[in-house]
Design goal:
binds S-adenosylmethionine, 13 helices, alpha/beta, 2 domains, eight-stranded mixed beta sheet
């Protein structure tokens, strides 16, 4: 299958040519069928460039729109990998219709996200409240899908509910389902050869940045069946993912290709989802052999010594059988669980201070296993040894 391509064609036809279960992540921004007739006017009389495009108005009835939605969603489901994710964005005109069809197709909703626009188009006539958001549905192929979710990376992206000064002080909170992002404008907005806005519904790159960071890995294939100005491909390429973009309008494809050609890969910790990488497994035994722990050393919980380390990495109390650190802490804490994560609780004494055994493990990994993640992300090594 060819990747890093724009396919100029009708999306259902083109999706049906792709191998089944070959795509990791789909972002779809379909026609909303806004039902806008003619030109919109501001109260001053000037024209407002809303979405009255032919591609958005191509439907004759709700049944027609439903049938179109069913066919492209069905084709997306076929190409999506069993553990892939699909995101669909829609406004109030279409998102309920689309959502119902997604459920009919057995897609399983993980979240719906509100894109709360910082700079929404006003309701010029003052006939209703300002429509300041769109909805994005994140779904998988079923409840048991083991989809990629870079949970800690998502936290790193959350500046919506964490003040800048708190973020800089290391505070992180779960990413929520309301994203405060501006409508695409300025330099980011593509213009045609006459300097006129190329596309009426170009999406902001920052939305795609979040979605791709949350639900994919380096090298994954990201597909967009309604490419438009190729926002999805642009962000995917920059983030080190592969892309397949489908769009039936030739002009959008041509401008989109130029946009894509100009993009350079820029891969940092977010793109690598470094915050979510799992620590390599290491044994107590190997850390004792390497001199990071000593045989006979006391293990403390809440500043009280409980156990001694043995040569084989088990811990022992004079009157008890050898235990692993996880069983031992569960017993000390009188937990109803048989095992707790011992790395979270046990400490040793170093230079008259209590030091978490997890910090020592991290130090060992960073120094001996050379794991980049630890050297970059974990503090508190310095006094550990
Ligand atoms: C809402 S726009 C997508 C905008 C895009 N997300 C962006 O950031 O530029 C929908 C796009 O789908 C295209 N389109 C509509 N029907 C299509 C179809 N059946 N197959 C392929 N593309 C289609 C339209 O030309 C339009 O560019």
């Amino acid at each position: 299958m060819k990747t890093n391509v724009i396919i100029n064609g009708e999306c259902v036809e083109e999706l049906n040519k792709l191998p089944a279960e070959s795509i990791d992540l789909i972002f779809a921004d379909p026609p909303y069928w806004m039902r806008v007739d003619g030109v919109l006017n501001r109260p001053s009389g000037s024209e407002y460039d809303g979405c009255a495009d032919e591609w958005d108005n191509q439907f004759s009835s709700l049944e027609d729109y439903k049938s179109f939605t069913k066919s492209w969603l069905n084709a997306c489901v076929k190409v999506l990998k069993p553990n892939g994710s699909i995101w669909v964005i829609g406004g109030m005109q279409c998102v309920y219709t689309i959502g119902a069809i997604m459920q009919d197709l057995n897609l399983w909703f993980i979240n719906d996200v509100i894109w709360w626009k910082t700079n929404p188009t006003p309701n010029f006539k003052g006939t209703r409240i300002n429509n300041a958001h769109e909805t994005m549905i994140w779904a998988t192929k079923g409840k048991s899908a083991r989809y990629t979710f870079n949970y800690k990376t998502a936290k790193e992206l959350n500046k919506d509910t964490v003040f800048e000064k708190d973020f800089n002080a290391g505070i992180r909170k779960q990413l929520g389902s309301v994203w405060r992002i501006g409508v695409c404008q300025g330099e980011e907005r593509l213009k045609d050869e006459n300097g006129v806005k190329l596309h009426s519904t170009q999406k902001p790159e920052s939305i795609l940045y979040r979605i791709i960071a949350l639900n994919s890995k380096l090298g994954d294939i990201v597909l967009d069946p309604f490419g438009g100005t190729m926002t999805t491909g642009t962000v995917a390429k920059r983030m080190g993912r592969k892309y397949i973009m489908i769009e039936n309008n030739r002009q959008y494809c041509e401008f989109g290709q130029k946009r894509l050609d100009a993009v350079k890969e820029c891969i940092g910790d977010i793109e690598k989802a470094i915050f979510d990488s799992k620590p390599p497994r290491v044994s107590f035994e190997e850390m004792i052999q390497a001199g990071y722990f000593k045989v006979g050393e006391k293990l403390f919980y809440n500043s009280k010594p409980y156990f001694f380390l043995t040569e084989n990495g088990k811990i022992i109390r004079q009157d008890s059988e050898p235990l692993d650190i996880h069983t031992a802490i569960a017993r000390v804490k009188n937990s109803t669980a048989n095992r707790l994560n011992g790395w979270d609780y046990w400490e040793v004494r170093r230079n008259n201070e209590f030091v978490s055994i997890d910090n020592i493990r991290q130090k060992y990994i960073s120094e001996v296993k050379y794991d980049v993640w630890y050297t970059k992300n974990i503090d508190g090594f310095n006094n550990a040894r």
